Amino acid sequence: MPVLQFWYEFASTYSYPAAMRINEKAISYGVEVSWQPFLLGPIFKGFGWNTSPFNLQPEKGRYMWRDLERICAKLDLPPMRKPNPFPQNSLKAARIALCLPDAEPRAMFSQGIFDAQFAWLLPIDDDRVLTDILMRQDFPAEDIMAKSAEAKTKQALKSQVDRAQQLGLFGAPSFVTSDSEMFWGNDRLEDALEWQARL
Length: 199
Known about the structure:
Number of domains: 1
Order of helices and strands: EHEHHHHHHHHEEH
Distance between the termini: 10 Å
CATH superfamily: Glutaredoxin
Shape: globular
Structural class: alpha+beta
CATH architecture: 3-Layer(aba) Sandwich
Radius of gyration: 16 Å
Strand order of the largest sheet: 2-1-3-4
Strand content: 5-15%
Largest sheet: 4 strands, mixed
CATH topology: Glutaredoxin
Helix content: 55-70%
Protein backbone atom coordinates (compact mmCIF):
# COMPACT_ATOMS: atom_id res chain seq x y z
CA MET A 1 0.00 0.00 0.00
CA PRO A 2 1.13 3.59 -0.61
CA VAL A 3 2.46 5.27 2.53
CA LEU A 4 1.75 8.83 3.67
CA GLN A 5 4.09 10.38 6.24
CA PHE A 6 2.21 12.10 9.07
CA TRP A 7 4.44 14.65 10.81
CA TYR A 8 3.03 15.85 14.11
CA GLU A 9 4.07 17.73 17.23
CA PHE A 10 2.39 16.76 20.49
CA ALA A 11 2.03 20.40 21.59
CA SER A 12 0.42 21.33 18.27
CA THR A 13 -3.29 22.02 18.60
CA TYR A 14 -4.25 21.19 15.02
CA SER A 15 -2.27 17.95 15.20
CA TYR A 16 -4.87 16.73 17.72
CA PRO A 17 -7.86 16.30 15.36
CA ALA A 18 -5.57 15.08 12.59
CA ALA A 19 -4.12 12.35 14.82
CA MET A 20 -7.52 11.23 16.02
CA ARG A 21 -8.92 10.67 12.53
CA ILE A 22 -6.05 9.96 10.16
CA ASN A 23 -5.93 6.17 10.43
CA GLU A 24 -9.64 5.71 9.76
CA LYS A 25 -9.52 8.15 6.87
CA ALA A 26 -6.44 6.47 5.41
CA ILE A 27 -8.20 3.10 5.28
CA SER A 28 -10.95 4.57 3.10
CA TYR A 29 -8.30 5.82 0.65
CA GLY A 30 -6.27 2.59 0.68
CA VAL A 31 -3.26 4.39 2.15
CA GLU A 32 -0.97 3.44 5.04
CA VAL A 33 0.22 6.04 7.53
CA SER A 34 3.76 6.48 8.84
CA TRP A 35 3.63 8.32 12.19
CA GLN A 36 6.52 10.80 12.45
CA PRO A 37 6.70 12.75 15.74
CA PHE A 38 9.01 15.78 15.83
CA LEU A 39 9.58 19.05 17.70
CA LEU A 40 8.58 22.45 16.38
CA GLY A 41 10.57 24.39 18.98
CA PRO A 42 13.93 24.18 17.15
CA ILE A 43 12.22 25.08 13.88
CA PHE A 44 10.45 28.07 15.43
CA LYS A 45 13.74 29.26 16.90
CA GLY A 46 15.08 29.43 13.38
CA PHE A 47 12.25 31.88 12.61
CA GLY A 48 13.19 33.97 15.65
CA TRP A 49 10.18 32.78 17.67
CA ASN A 50 10.47 31.71 21.30
CA THR A 51 6.94 30.32 21.62
CA SER A 52 3.89 29.30 19.59
CA PRO A 53 2.74 31.78 16.93
CA PHE A 54 -0.68 31.53 18.59
CA ASN A 55 0.88 33.14 21.67
CA LEU A 56 2.80 35.71 19.66
CA GLN A 57 -0.39 36.79 17.87
CA PRO A 58 -3.21 36.92 20.47
CA GLU A 59 -5.94 37.49 17.86
CA LYS A 60 -4.80 34.44 15.92
CA GLY A 61 -4.66 32.47 19.16
CA ARG A 62 -8.24 33.37 20.13
CA TYR A 63 -9.44 32.36 16.68
CA MET A 64 -7.53 29.07 16.83
CA TRP A 65 -9.10 27.95 20.12
CA ARG A 66 -12.61 28.74 18.89
CA ASP A 67 -11.90 27.09 15.54
CA LEU A 68 -10.79 23.91 17.28
CA GLU A 69 -13.92 23.89 19.43
CA ARG A 70 -15.94 23.80 16.22
CA ILE A 71 -13.71 21.18 14.60
CA CYS A 72 -13.84 18.85 17.61
CA ALA A 73 -17.61 19.19 17.87
CA LYS A 74 -17.96 18.36 14.18
CA LEU A 75 -15.72 15.29 14.53
CA ASP A 76 -17.42 14.21 17.79
CA LEU A 77 -14.14 14.51 19.69
CA PRO A 78 -13.93 15.54 23.35
CA PRO A 79 -14.12 19.34 23.67
CA MET A 80 -10.79 21.06 23.05
CA ARG A 81 -9.35 22.62 26.21
CA LYS A 82 -6.36 24.91 26.63
CA PRO A 83 -3.58 23.38 28.75
CA ASN A 84 -1.62 25.52 31.17
CA PRO A 85 1.06 26.28 30.24
CA PHE A 86 0.58 26.38 26.50
CA PRO A 87 2.42 25.05 24.62
CA GLN A 88 3.25 22.00 26.70
CA ASN A 89 6.77 20.55 26.80
CA SER A 90 6.51 17.63 24.40
CA LEU A 91 10.15 16.45 24.50
CA LYS A 92 9.65 13.31 26.63
CA ALA A 93 6.48 12.27 24.80
CA ALA A 94 8.20 12.56 21.42
CA ARG A 95 11.14 10.44 22.60
CA ILE A 96 8.78 7.76 23.91
CA ALA A 97 6.84 7.74 20.63
CA LEU A 98 10.08 7.06 18.74
CA CYS A 99 10.71 4.06 21.02
CA LEU A 100 7.49 2.46 19.77
CA PRO A 101 7.05 0.75 16.39
CA ASP A 102 5.85 3.03 13.60
CA ALA A 103 2.49 1.27 13.40
CA GLU A 104 -0.43 0.74 15.76
CA PRO A 105 1.65 1.05 18.97
CA ARG A 106 2.96 4.51 18.06
CA ALA A 107 -0.47 5.60 16.86
CA MET A 108 -2.15 4.41 20.07
CA PHE A 109 0.36 6.12 22.32
CA SER A 110 0.23 9.34 20.30
CA GLN A 111 -3.55 9.49 20.43
CA GLY A 112 -3.35 8.85 24.17
CA ILE A 113 -1.00 11.83 24.58
CA PHE A 114 -3.24 14.16 22.59
CA ASP A 115 -6.29 13.05 24.55
CA ALA A 116 -4.52 13.49 27.90
CA GLN A 117 -3.28 16.95 26.99
CA PHE A 118 -6.22 18.57 25.23
CA ALA A 119 -9.21 16.70 26.67
CA TRP A 120 -8.02 16.09 30.24
CA LEU A 121 -5.47 18.91 30.69
CA LEU A 122 -2.78 16.55 31.97
CA PRO A 123 0.90 17.59 31.84
CA ILE A 124 2.53 15.53 29.11
CA ASP A 125 6.02 16.09 30.50
CA ASP A 126 5.10 14.31 33.76
CA ASP A 127 6.62 10.83 34.04
CA ARG A 128 3.57 9.59 35.96
CA VAL A 129 1.22 10.69 33.19
CA LEU A 130 3.41 9.15 30.50
CA THR A 131 3.81 5.90 32.41
CA ASP A 132 0.06 5.67 33.01
CA ILE A 133 -0.68 6.08 29.30
CA LEU A 134 1.79 3.31 28.44
CA MET A 135 0.41 1.00 31.12
CA ARG A 136 -3.20 1.52 30.08
CA GLN A 137 -2.20 0.48 26.57
CA ASP A 138 -0.44 -2.65 27.89
CA PHE A 139 3.04 -1.50 26.87
CA PRO A 140 6.10 -2.36 29.03
CA ALA A 141 6.12 1.09 30.59
CA GLU A 142 9.26 0.77 32.73
CA ASP A 143 11.38 -0.51 29.85
CA ILE A 144 10.10 2.11 27.41
CA MET A 145 10.59 4.98 29.85
CA ALA A 146 14.17 3.85 30.43
CA LYS A 147 14.83 3.50 26.71
CA SER A 148 13.41 6.96 26.02
CA ALA A 149 16.08 8.51 28.26
CA GLU A 150 18.99 6.81 26.50
CA ALA A 151 21.43 8.83 24.41
CA LYS A 152 20.48 6.83 21.31
CA THR A 153 16.84 7.89 21.61
CA LYS A 154 17.75 11.53 22.24
CA GLN A 155 19.84 11.50 19.08
CA ALA A 156 17.00 9.86 17.15
CA LEU A 157 14.70 12.76 18.01
CA LYS A 158 17.35 15.30 17.01
CA SER A 159 17.64 13.45 13.70
CA GLN A 160 13.85 13.66 13.30
CA VAL A 161 13.99 17.43 13.66
CA ASP A 162 16.85 17.62 11.15
CA ARG A 163 14.84 15.49 8.72
CA ALA A 164 11.78 17.70 9.17
CA GLN A 165 13.87 20.77 8.38
CA GLN A 166 15.31 19.08 5.30
CA LEU A 167 11.76 18.37 4.12
CA GLY A 168 10.95 22.05 4.56
CA LEU A 169 8.40 21.56 7.31
CA PHE A 170 7.40 24.74 9.14
CA GLY A 171 4.35 23.62 11.10
CA ALA A 172 2.23 20.71 12.22
CA PRO A 173 0.43 18.67 11.25
CA SER A 174 2.18 18.17 7.94
CA PHE A 175 1.73 15.33 5.48
CA VAL A 176 4.44 14.25 3.04
CA THR A 177 3.61 11.94 0.15
CA SER A 178 5.92 9.34 -1.37
CA ASP A 179 6.73 11.76 -4.22
CA SER A 180 7.72 14.44 -1.66
CA GLU A 181 4.60 16.56 -2.03
CA MET A 182 3.83 18.41 1.23
CA PHE A 183 0.44 19.33 2.65
CA TRP A 184 0.14 21.44 5.80
CA GLY A 185 -2.72 21.58 8.25
CA ASN A 186 -5.52 19.41 9.56
CA ASP A 187 -7.79 20.70 6.80
CA ARG A 188 -5.41 19.32 4.15
CA LEU A 189 -5.52 15.72 5.38
CA GLU A 190 -8.01 14.55 2.76
CA ASP A 191 -6.08 16.31 -0.01
CA ALA A 192 -2.88 14.56 1.08
CA LEU A 193 -4.55 11.15 1.22
CA GLU A 194 -6.12 11.64 -2.20
CA TRP A 195 -2.76 12.66 -3.70
CA GLN A 196 -0.98 9.69 -2.12
CA ALA A 197 -3.67 7.26 -3.24
CA ARG A 198 -3.06 8.21 -6.88
CA LEU A 199 0.66 7.36 -6.77
